[in-house]
Design brief:
The complex is a heterononamer. Chain C is mainly alpha-helical. Chain C has helices at 2-19, 31-52, 63-94, 111-123, 153-157, 160-168, and strands at 100-104, 127-132, 139-143. Helices cover 67% and strands 0% of the residues of chain F. By secondary structure, chain F is mainly alpha-helical. Classes of the chains: A mainly alpha, B mainly alpha, C mainly alpha, D mainly alpha, E mainly alpha, F mainly alpha, G mainly alpha, H mainly alpha, I mainly alpha.
């Protein structure tokens, strides 16, 4: 009973997402790209790094990267805390 | 050139989806993890074809070796 | 200490090989690249020297052996590998197999030598090293076309043990 | 030049394809390993060799260092394949034998008699 | 259909992951499902940044005069991949602890907390 | 119970271990020029640790790697990272104060396609290194901890 | 008294006045209490409950456990509580299932409207 | 020049098709080692394909990804192999 | 001083973060009680900084901080119309939530000094506590939607690790942690998917910029649904609430108090999405009613499930669900009438004030109640109400604090719960009388269930096993007393808070133009 309810819900969910996938803009043709064009044009002059992705990761969106490194740190602290008496 | 490339995209995605499907449906855990590794490998190839080498390296380093390693640790500890 | 220096040099060379492009030094490397190579090799040497030289044996460092190794690689090894592939192609197409696992005793003492031999065997005609006896370095080999139930070394791997001995022992 | 590249590539593709077909056709793990390891390694050597030849040729022709880098990095990748593949195959074969997967149609199995565990 | 196939693949991956979460009983299978959803989202982000006939946004020895794909999704995906591995590691660790304490990984039996 | 893998694998591992390390550090150091960076390089080096764990087993790995040292490195990497962010407080948090300044990592890059110069990038390069240290230590700690824990739990089951 | 005056949409609320009124009422109650009988003494027979001759329970026995409080309430609402408790299975699959279910319902509602 | 690059693209696509063939072993493989062999084959094919595509895109830096894969797929293989061995021993 | 104020948005995040990275190093050399004091001092500093920022924001308008720009206020690069860097945008609503986070986490750290004494791995505990606090600040202050995702993920991982922290003693904490991890992974991944949908259409990640170009296409609808559902789930609304009792009951008591604030940060994000991101472009009546229905369900099912619980913390967790319903109800009414200026003026704003004031009140009294539950657990070692009894004889402070908290949650005047509930009742009555009546009924049931707790835990004769129970240590009493004082103060002078903090918060939510123009310049 419950399983079939969830199954129908799941089917509806996937169907809606599929509809939206067909409604997506065509693959490979972004409609706006103002922010990214800024990065591509100015990253080299502003930071001096050739790799635009790294520039975004560590400079323009450096704060995200701090958060990301923190996520990893949190996970490690969590795992060590979980196993603090299992593994010496 | 571009028609060959879109064909490549579709084949890689199909192979990846099959591998992901296997990862879900296989009963035993180890084959399912192997299928997951294959899916992650092909995902990395797809990233490569989409011109994202940074992400491809990250997915390769993390998906291939480390995810595999931690899944195997977990399976090893929780085996009946 | 020797192990540290050797690891350092090894990683230094590997790093330079990876980063060769344009620059002041020999037209291939820039100055910063060399500095980075030094620092990184130091770190790697500190972290990996104990792993690389667990047995403290340094006879592999003889450059002559490396020259022989290169010669082996492009000469007999490549030839045998080509032969192996044609063999496998034949078997894939016809499906004729007669497999079995046999044992050989190449009497090699050295880890590097036995590794070289095993890998060569794996890549060459109709053979695949399955297991190794840790005590006396006997190799157990899966042979796709068993012609002789008690094979000699020459049957399986030709002149490879000699080469392996020459290179690594 | 183009002819050389086409020859190298077709040899490589032929052996790679043979490897995957052999993986399909052979009856047990060990023979499949034969096909998979040998053929794909050999095929990959040839496809990579074509890239290396291409890189060195263009390096010489245009003098642009990036083609040299292309060749060198391909050599590194090739060395990695050559040294990791047979070792991996050995590990799988050993694990398969120890986990009790016996070779089919085997004429002789000395390892089983030796019982190394 | 063909033009949008990557988006469809994303939805299928997402669907597979959610299916695993709802219908599979093994806790490690659930972790696999979460990994699949993660893969789907990562693929989605990268797909958004793709531009036909463009190359990666790296100036080092790139071909001349070719446009570049959008770099932001790659940066975001990089972040999300590392977050994903952290999540997976934590989830599996907790599963190991659960197995140690409960002796089972079946989600029908891992429910002392209810009601 | 024997922990190690066969002799052939062990011998190969020693070689590949060194090379993976070199390659990982190459990816970290060239993060601002080639694909890669702190995360990717860190995860590659951490994979090398995972390789050690699988070939030599837990006991022997502890001779080569100290978990305490790794967890110290992890915090250190993050502290360096956040300190570089703090140093930018003259303008804003995370301001790239090193780029185009002429100091370490501060030469300005050629605009357009170029072979790349290691000494560019400003704080991008520095943060790459800091994050690289953090990630390699963090993933290494994860691998070592989970491996030990899984072995302990497995033994307890017997 | 503008401090403490809270607009509440259709009226206002003044806590301090409420407190003052409470205190005044409390004083009034105390005053009423003081007007009670004065012969009440502690520790005499007056404090003992009259239990129709039954023996008095000890303090420990008279303590009602938490499970027994509102027993009648839950018993009366059995048909409401039974399915509700059954829904809370504590099974992780159901947790994710509910999320998807709610998402699907909202999808349908928003899609229809 | 551009024709020269196209030479590499077609073999790359063919390699991807071979992956599809190898995948059948992953689906069918009666034992776990069979699946591992399939994974190993797919790994090698992916590395070779990455090299070819890198040449086809005329991007030198893409080869780095192939090197990472060639190195790290080995680790995954070793993990599975060791686990199979250990599981057999404990049984 | 002004320098500190300029950089305060960055420092309030970076300081606890730096401390969190240093704690493992310090803890390696110093394993004494000093760690707790260190963490408390750091959190106290960030509390001070938050109050400073609040003072500034309430008088001078929103605070903007651009990370990595050459100036903190320079949001747009010259010649471009979109921001390219991560921007912190702290307006009235953000700082309102920030104050809650600061107070709760500071008191949690103070309480932990004694409460966690006997546990091993304390440096990890304090690290995680600091990280959780940081993540909550980040969720509340950020103006960048991907940055929000990152902080959401930090918050969930840190909470999971803290929930499962006591898994060395028994298996249940690990089980609760697993459930919460799965649920919050789904939430985070769906948020990431929604981020991708926004990015794919508009190529921006800044929330204000997205809001200014929002067209409410089909894809925006899907993003809205994903965001609303998963954020409501993280806030713990019925029927996606089932992780809440598990997680709240198994976490250590101070963590439970902070978890309440963390789930309210998700609630904040829900309001932020519906009001600031979409505002009237969405179909306000439908979405408003969806939120109202979720709220009413949460209120009613939460409280009825609470009545039958035997575990004291589980009971309180169900009450947390039910109180979340009030907030959803109040703000949902505001959302439903958002497109109707007359109704918005006459009761919509009041309803939202009620809902948002209730967030703060709930954080305070539910925090106090969880702390008293923790105090009981600290002395008796059990959470089962059947095994407790007669504790009022020995733990008089705790009893008083519990009475204050219970009266506040049940809406008894003159405590703060009454003030916010009264606003909700009266304004919702004008919207729909039935909802108001349900809300009052729920309040009565809340009182009933707390009478049960009070009776079975505190009243009655001294039990045999609890003869030697003493009052809890000083630092725990201090934390509880502070919360009790805040509750009484809010109850006596609710207008001070409503006029100075809540009203600006509500106006910041309703007025979308202010939100976007702070980033994009004048409209």
């Amino acid at each position: 009973m419950k399983k079939s309810v969830f199954g129908f819900a799941f089917l509806f969910f996937v169907a809606f997402l599929l509809l939206s996938a067909f409604g997506m803009r065509p693959f490979g043709e972004p409609s706006f790209s103002e922010m990214d064009d800024y990065y591509i044009e100015n990253a080299q002059a502003e930071t001096g790094a050739n790799n635009v992705v790294t520039t975004i990761v560590f400079d323009y969106r450096g704060f995200d990267t701090l958060g990301e490194a923190t996520v990893l740190f949190t996970a490690v602290v969590g795992i060590v805390a979980l196993f603090r008496e299992v593994a010496k | 050139m571009s028609s060959w490339l879109s064909f490549a995209h579709i084949v890689v995605l199909v192979v990846m989806l099959i591998a992901a499907f296997l990862a879900v449906v296989l009963k035993d855990l180890l084959p399912s993890v192997i299928a997951l590794a294959a899916a992650s490998l092909l995902l990395s190839l797809e990233f490569y074809l989409l011109h994202a080498p940074d992400v491809a390296i990250a997915e390769a380093g993390i998906g291939a070796a480390l995810t595999m390693a931690i899944f195997i640790f977990a399976i090893r500890a929780t085996k009946k | 200490m020797v192990s540290f220096i050797v690891t350092f040099l090894l990683s230094f060379v590997a790093y330079l090989f990876l980063t060769a492009s344009q620059g002041e030094i020999l037209g291939l490397w820039s100055n910063y690249e060399i500095i980075a190579a030094l620092i990184i090799s130091l770190i790697v040497a500190a972290m990996a020297s104990r792993v690389l030289f667990q047995k403290k044996s340094y006879h592999l460092l003889n450059p002559l052996r490396w020259v022989i190794f290169l010669g082996y690689l492009v000469g007999p090894f490549f030839f045998a590998m080509a032969k192996a592939n044609i063999d496998v192609a034949y078997r894939v197409i016809t499906g004729k197999i007669n497999p079995g696992i046999v044992k050989i005793s190449p009497n090699l003492k050295n880890d590097a030598a036995i590794t070289l031999l095993a890998n060569s065997i794996t890549l060459t005609p109709g053979t695949l090293s399955v297991d190794i006896d840790e005590k006396n370095n006997d190799l157990y080999i899966h042979w796709i076309n068993v012609t002789n139930l008690k094979p000699t070394i020459e049957d399986i791997c030709g002149s490879f043990p000699i080469w392996a001995r020459r290179i690594a022992e | 030049m183009t002819v050389l590249l086409v020859i190298l590539l077709s040899i490589g593709i032929f052996f790679n394809g043979l490897g995957s077909i052999g993986l399909m056709r052979f009856p047990d793990v060990y023979t499949r390993l034969h096909a998979a390891t040998k053929c794909t390694t050999f095929g990959s050597i040839f496809t990579s060799l074509s890239v290396i030849v291409f890189g060195f040729y263009l390096w010489g022709a245009s003098g642009d260092s990036k083609y040299g880098v292309l060749a060198l990095h391909t050599i590194v990748a090739l060395i990695c394949i050559i040294i990791t593949n047979p070792t991996g195959a050995h590990a799988i074969a050993r694990a398969a034998h120890r986990s009790g997967v016996m070779p089919k149609q085997a004429v002789i199995d000395e390892l089983k008699e030796a019982n190394l565990k | 259909m063909i033009g949008n196939f990557p988006f469809v693949a994303v939805v299928i991956l997402l669907g597979l992951g959610i299916y695993t979460l709802i219908f599979k009983k093994n806790l490690i299978k659930i972790a696999i499902g979460i990994t699949l959803i993660e893969n789907g989202t990562n693929l989605f982000l990268i797909t958004l940044g793709y531009r036909k006939g463009a190359v990666a946004p790296i100036y080092t020895q790139a071909p001349e005069g070719v446009p570049m794909v959008l770099p932001t999704p790659q940066a975001l995906t990089l972040t999300s991949i590392v977050i994903g591995v952290a999540t997976t590691a934590l989830i599996l660790s907790i599963a190991m602890i659960i197995y140690k304490k409960y002796g089972t990984l079946n989600s029908d039996e891992v429910r002392r907390l209810r009601g | 119970m024997k922990e190690e893998m066969s002799r052939i694998v062990r011998t190969m591992t020693t070689l590949i271990y060194v090379f993976i390390m070199v390659y990982g550090f190459y990816v970290i150091a060239h993060g601002h020029l080639t694909p890669g960076g702190g995360f990717q390089g860190g995860s590659v080096v951490a994979s090398a640790f995972a390789l050690l764990v699988v070939t030599y087993g837990n006991q022997k790995t502890q001779d080569f790697l100290q978990k305490d040292l790794l967890s110290l490195l992890e915090s250190t990497g993050l502290v360096i990272f956040i300190c570089f962010a703090f140093f930018g407080l003259g303008a804003t948090f995370f301001y790239n104060f090193l780029s185009n300044s002429g100091s370490l990592f501060g030469s300005s890059a050629t605009i357009g396609v170029n072979p790349g110069n290691l000494n560019t990038g400003g704080t991008v390069t520095a943060m790459n290194i800091a994050v690289g240290i953090e990630v390699l230590a963090a993933l290494g700690v994860i691998v070592l901890t989970m491996s030990q824990a899984s072995e302990t739990i497995e033994k307890k089951e017997k | 008294m503008s401090i403490g005056l809270l607009e509440t949409g259709s009226g206002y609320w003044q806590a301090i006045i409420w407190v003052i009124i409470t205190v005044i009422i409390g004083i009034g109650v105390l005053w009423l209490r003081n007007k009670g009988k004065e012969e009440y003494k502690k520790n005499t027979n007056q404090t003992k409950p009259f239990l129709s001759g039954n023996p008095e329970l000890t303090k420990e026995d008279s303590h009602v456990g938490a499970s027994h409080i509102y027993w009648g309430f839950t018993e009366a609402l059995k048909h409401y509580y039974q399915p509700l408790v059954n829904i809370h299975t504590g099974n992780i699959n159901d947790y994710s299932g509910w999320v998807v279910l709610v998402m699907a319902i909202i999808f349908i509602i928003v899609g229809v409207s | 020049m551009n024709q020269l690059l196209n030479i590499f693209l077609v073999p790359g696509v063919l390699l991807i098709l071979f992956m599809l063939i190898s995948l059948f072993r992953l689906i069918a493989g009666p034992t776990v080692p069979d699946r591992v062999v399939a994974l190993d084959t797919i790994n090698t094919l992916v590395v070779a394909g990455m090299i070819l595509f890198g040449a086809a895109f005329e991007e030198v830096i893409y080869i780095d990804v192939a090197i990472v894969y060639a190195l790290l797929s080995y680790i995954a293989t070793l993990y599975i192999a060791k686990y199979i061995e250990r599981r057999a021993k404990n049984r | 001083m002004s320098g500190i104020l300029t950089h305060a948005p960055a420092l309030v995040i970076a300081l606890p973060l730096l401390a969190a990275f240093l704690v493992p190093i310090i803890g390696r050399f110093n394993r004494s009680k000093g760690l707790g004091w260190f963490v408390s001092i750091i959190l106290g500093l960030s509390l001070l900084m938050t109050l400073l920022m609040a003072n500034h924001i309430l008088s001078n308008g929103p605070l903007i901080y651009v990370f990595g720009g050459s100036e903190p206020g320079l949001t747009l690069p010259s010649g471009y119309t979109v921001p390219i860097r991560i921007i912190f945008q702290i307006d009235g609503m953000g700082i309102f939530m920030g104050i809650i986070t600061a107070v709760v986490s500071f008191l949690g750290a103070v309480y932990s000094i004694s409460f966690m004494e006997q546990h091993s791995g304390l440096e990890k505990y304090y690290t995680l506590l600091l990280l959780l606090t940081t993540a909550m600040y980040g969720m509340e202050f950020t103006g960048d939607i991907f940055n929000f995702f990152v902080f959401l993920e930090i918050a969930s991982i840190a909470s999971v690790a803290l929930i499962a922290f006591r898994s060395n003693l028994s298996g249940e904490p690990a089980e609760a942690g697993f459930k919460y991890m799965v649920v919050s992974s789904i939430a985070a991944l769906m948020v990431l998917f929604a981020v991708g949908l926004f990015y794919g259409q508009y190529d921006v990640l800044n929330m204000a910029t997205i809001a200014s170009v929002m067209q409410f296409t089909q894809l925006d609808k899907i993003a809205l649904i994903l965001l609303v559902t998963v954020l409501a789930m993280k806030a713990g609304s019925v029927p996606m609430h089932m992780w809440t009792p598990d997680a709240y009951s198994e976490a250590p008591a101070p963590i439970t108090m902070i978890l309440v604030a963390a789930s309210q940060a998700s609630l904040y994000a829900l309001f932020r999405v519906t009001f600031s991101l979409y505002n009237i472009t969405l179909n306000t009546v439908v979405i408003g009613w969806i939120i109202i229905i979720l709220g009413v369900l949460s209120m009613f099912i939460g409280v009825t499930m609470a009545i039958i619980q035997k575990d004291i913390k589980r009971l309180m967790a169900y009450h947390a669900i039910s109180q979340t319903g009030y907030m959803l109800l109040g703000v949902g009414v505001g959302l439903a009438v958002l497109a109707n200026p007359v109704a918005l003026e006459s009761f919509g704003i009041k309803a939202m004030e009620g809902g948002i004031f209730h967030i703060m009140n709930h954080a305070m009294y539910k925090g106090l109640l969880f702390l008293t539950a923790g105090a009981l657990f600290y002395r008796t070692g059990t959470r089962d109400l059947n095994k407790m009894g007669g504790l009022a004889h020995n733990m008089s402070y705790t009893t008083v604090f519990f009475i204050i908290g219970a009266a506040a949650i049940a809406g008894i005047p003159p405590f703060n719960g009454f003030a916010s509930k009264l606003i909700i009742y009266e304004s919702v009555y004008q919207f729909n009388p039935l909802l108001s009546i349900i809300a009052m009924l729920v309040s009565i049931l809340t009182l009933a269930s707390f009478v049960k707790v009070f009776h079975s835990a505190f009243l009655g004769p001294k039990l045999e096993q609890y003869q030697k129970v003493e009052e809890v240590p000083k630092s725990m009493v201090v934390a509880m007393a502070t919360l009790a004082c805040i509750i009484v103060f809010f109850g006596l002078f609710p207008d001070v808070i409503v006029d100075n903090l809540v009203h600006p918060a509500v106006m910041a939510l309703i007025n979308q133009v202010n939100y976007t123009s702070a980033i994009l310049g004048g409209m």
